[in-house]
Specification:
This protein is of the alpha+beta class. Helices cover 39% and strands 25% of the residues. α1 crosses α2 (22-28), α4 packs across α6 and α5 crosses α6 (83-94).
Length: 288
Amino acid sequence: MLERLNQAMEHIEAHLDRPIEAAELARIAVTSEYHFRRMFSALAGIPLSEYVRRRRLTMAGADVVAGERTLLDIAVRWGYGSAEAFARAFRAMHGVGPGEARRTGAALRAQPRMSFRLTVEGSSSMRYRIVRKESFSLVGRRARVPLVHEGMNPAIVEFVQGIAPAVRERIEALSDQEPAGIVNVSDGLAGNRAEGTELDYWYGVVTGAEVPADLDALPVPAGTWAVFETSGAFPEAVQYLWRDVFTQWFPANPYRSRPGPEISRTRVSADGGHADAELWIPVEPVGG
C-alpha cells in the first residue's frame, strides 16, 4: 500500500502545473477515492488539496524569485485565473506578496515533497475483529463540531452537558445491539482530517427499534466493520487509536475505509483518567 501511495505522490509532482484529480491518484494507489483522501490526511497531517496547493505555491515561489517570467505568466502556470487570486494565495502561504518577494528577495516558505515509509515502533499489537452488521439506525442527538486531535473537545463537552439527564436515559434505553449503550459518533467529515475541520458528532445508540419523533436519527445500511479495542489514559488512548488505525492498520491490512459513520464506544473511569474503548470503522476488502 505504501509503495502505491508513493507512486501517487510521484504523479502529483509530475502534474503540479496541470489539473490533478483525486480519482486518478486513487486509481494509481489501487483504492477508492474516499479511502485515498482519508489515508492521505491521516498520514500527511493535512488534506490532499492543501498539500497540492502548498507544493504549487512552493514551485511558484521559485519562479517568482528567478525573475524569468512575468507574475501573470507564473499565476497561470500554477493554476490561478488572475494575478490577484495568485497574489492572495501567495501571500497567505509566504507572508509576502509575489511582487514584493521579487523586489526584495524576501524569505519564502516551502512545502517539501512528501513520501511515505513504514516505521516500526514498539512491540505492541492492535486488537481488532471484523464484524458484518445488518442495517441499523443511529439514534440520539447530533451537533456540528470542529475536529480536535488531542485533548478534550470543548464543543463536544458543551453539547453533551446540554443534553438533559432524562433525555440521555431515554436514548440509552433504545440500545438493543452492539456496540451496546451510549456511543460517540463522527460522520460527515468529507475525507478531511485537518484540525478544526467540521463534522457531525452524535451522542446516541445503535438500534433497530422504532425511532422517537423528537430524536435525531441516521439510517445506516448493512456492511462490514473493523472493530478496534484500546485501554488507557483518557482521552489520549482513544485519540491515538484513531490515528493508529489510519496510519498503521490500514497500510498493513487488505481493507480500506468506506463511507459511513465512525463509532466510538468509550467507558471512562469514575475519576475520568482512564478509558476502555471500542472503535468501529466501516470498511470493505481491497478490490471489493
